[in-house]
Amino acid sequence: MELKIEKSLPLEIRVENLHKSFGDNQVLRGINLSVGRGEIIAIVGGSGSGKTVLLQHLIGHLRPDDGRVWVADHESPGAPLVDLSTLAECYKVAALDGLNRLRHSTNPVVEIKADAA
């Protein structure tokens, strides 16, 4: 008899049937993805395969043509999953601002010094 123990991590991100097109170019066709708390994943694929478009959906920068993106709401007890399209715009702007600062920084480590009195 084999005992199989499956750990179930609380979900941080869930993508359901995500579709996105730009004109006649279908970039995402029914993407489904679940990411548990603490999991590390890699999104790999060739040039033009939709990696960046998927990531832009995960941070709320793009809206899907169909499907949904759910993210953990750490401001609520138990961090329930909420539809990203329902979150306040300020959360999306803050996420984008943080990613842009990191992307354009040559040194992401910031030294903070106290002002001399």
Describe the structure.
- With 117 residues, this protein is of the alpha+beta class.
- The protein has a single domain (11-104), classed as P-loop containing nucleotide triphosphate hydrolases (Rossmann fold), CATH 3.40.50.300.
- It is 21% helix and 29% strand.
- The protein is built from two helices and four strands, in the order ββαββα.
- The protein has a four-stranded antiparallel β-sheet with strand order 2-1-3-4, covered by helices on one side.
- The longest helix has 16 residues, at 89-104.
- Mean pLDDT is 79; it is low at 107-113.
Name some characteristics of this structure.
117 residues, Rossmann fold
Topology:
Blueprint: E1 11-22, E2 25-36, H1 51-58, E3 66-72, E4 81-83, H2 89-104
Antiparallel strand pairs: 1-2, 1-3, 3-4
Quick synopsis:
With 117 residues, the protein is α+β, with helices and mostly antiparallel strands.
What pattern of helices and strands is seen along the backbone? EEHEEH
Provide the CATH top-level class: Alpha Beta
Structural class: alpha+beta
Could you say what the CATH architecture is? 3-Layer(aba) Sandwich
Major sheet summary line: 4 strands, antiparallel
Q: Nearest-angstrom radius of gyration? A: 18 Å
